[in-house]
Amino acid sequence: MPVLELKEVDAYYGELQALFKVNLEVHRGRIVSVLGANGAGKSTLLKSICGLLESRSGSIFFDGKRIDGLSPHLIVDLGLSLVPEGRKIFSSLTVRENLMIGSYTPKARKDSLETLKNILEFFPSLRARISQKGTDLSGGEQQMLAIGRALMSRPRFIIFDEISLGLSPLVVKELYKAVKKINQEGMSVVLVEQDVKRSLKVADFAYILQEGKVTLKGNPRYLTEETVRKAYFGI
Amino acid sequence: MIEYLEPLINGILLGGLYGVVGIGLSMVFGIMRQVNLAHGDLMILSSYFSLLFLQVLGLHPLVTLILVAPLMFFIGYLIQLFLFNRVMQRGMEPFLMISFGLSIIIQNALLLVFTPDARSLETTLVIKSVDAFGLFNIPLIYLVNFAAGALVLGALQQFMKRTYMGWAINAAADNETAAKLMGINPKKVYAYAMGIAAVTAAISGVLVGMTFTFYPHSGTQYLIIAFGVVIIGGLGSLPGTFLGGLVLGVSQLFGGRILGPGFQLLSGYIILLIILTVRPQGILGGR
């Protein structure tokens, strides 16, 4: 049984339909890549999953529990965490406080200091900057902070939205290593990306969106460049 | 020179009280970007609650805070949950209107229950004074006010730096969407913040009630002081609010000493205007 399952999900911004009958499955312990050009509906899809946008029809299941219509803070508490696009580091909090707020949910709070220790071992460069303002860090460090913050909630399922946006190739390489390690520790991962090549290299399964519809899905090993291009751009 | 020491010291002490008066307004603005016009009335409501407990239970005004503070927290929490949270997404005007309405309701309810007579929270602190360097006397109540003000601001600062609720309040203020992704329910957090603001109103209400006389409509007067404090110090900044209180207190008493007692309030607002011109974001305000 998949951990996350979307069935025929439609989503709208006001009157504008942004998702059309999207079906998507993520199985336990997998890395699933969601690809698509700007405006293809990737962000809408994530918002629907996280409860930031109410889908108008269809259903979303997480761990067998129906989560569409639930408030975002309740979904986080179930063990689904999002590393948002643009990182969204809290500007009035220090690095340490930014991490600690990640463990806000009652479940995560109990072992928060233990989790914090593990995360600082995982991203040693954050340790040196622990008392600085979160937004004073470099782009790469901020991305690590955003990932660390999401991990603080001890999720079983983690979604990365545009993890490599605006970062140097070297930093991106390091971040992808972190993603793989996170996956090896047992977390299911969804990667939402514009960097098609890199994303397909690590993914076990891929979905390609275009204009709010799934245009291609499959194991990246069996997807040819041509079919991907066609699904991605429509040409 | 020495004759100015008295207004300076008394001004600083009075400023500590002004700091607590302003802190609730400053907090709500800093966190929700909203102006609570009923803040002064929540203060005076607390003064009357204290008066009630003092008369019925025979407690010292400061001791009544054990009852008044939680009561006000609860009131603030409920006001936010059931009134303000409904209009948070619609800009500033609905919030202003609701808080203005609340202000009118509180004032008239107090008028109805307690009559328009002048009241005060009687305590011997008011008549005692401390000798300052053998030069002049400092009313003991001023020292109590200042100590309480510093304590409240310090405690609030620590609360914001060290607790999950403090971080959550800051996080929700920074970015509501990202806060939701942390598992934070912004509406609950705002209710909590309003509860805390109401507790600061409770503390300042009791202090003001011990120091001065109050009437059902006194809230407006303290709202204006709170505005002054917050504008001078910088909106949303806790240390700024304390500093703003000191500047307003000192400039009032200096003006009173130099120009005559009638100019006390005016000189405070002249300094306010000057700061507004020179540094519109306030002394410690960012952006």
Description:
The complex is a heterodimer of chains A (235) and B (287). Chain A has helices at residues 42-50, 72-77, 95-101, 106-109, 112-122, 124-127, 139-151, 169-184, 196-202, 225-233, and strands at residues 4-13, 16-26, 31-36, 57-62, 65-66, 80-83, 157-161, 188-193, 205-210, 213-218. By secondary structure, chain A is α/β, with parallel strands linked by helices. Chain A has a 6-stranded mixed beta sheet with strand order 6-7-8-3-9-10, sandwiched between helices. In chain A, strands 2-1-4-5 form a 4-stranded antiparallel beta sheet, with helices on one face. Chain B has a single domain (2-278), classed as ABC transporter involved in vitamin B12 uptake, BtuC (Orthogonal Bundle). Chain B is built from 11 helices and 2 strands. A two-stranded antiparallel ribbon of chain B has the order 1-2. The A-B interface holds A 50-52, 71-73, 76-77, 81-82, 84, 88, 90-93, 97, 100-102, 104-105, 108-109, 149-150, 153 and B 161, 164, 167-168, 170-171, 173-175, 177-185.
Task: Provide a brief overview of the structure.
Chain A has 235 residues and is an alpha/beta fold. Chain A contains 10 helices and 10 strands. The longest helix of chain B has 28 residues, at 5-32.
Strand order of the largest sheet of chain A: 6-7-8-3-9-10
* Multimeric organization: heterodimer
Instruction: Kindly state the number of beta strands of chain B.
Output: 2
User: Residue ranges of chain A: pLDDT <50 for 5 or more in a row?
Assistant: none
Calculate the terminal CA-CA distance of chain B, rounded to whole Å: 38 Å
At the first level of CATH, the class of chain B is Mainly Alpha
Mean pLDDT of chain A: 93
End-to-end Cα distance of chain A, whole Å, is 35 Å
Q: Give helix % range of chain B.
A: over 70%
List the helices and strands of chain A in order. Answer: EEEHEEHEHHHHHEHEHEEH
Q: Write down the Rg of chain A.
A: 17 Å
Compute the number of helices of chain B.
11
Radius of gyration from the alpha-carbon trace of chain B, in angstroms: 19 Å
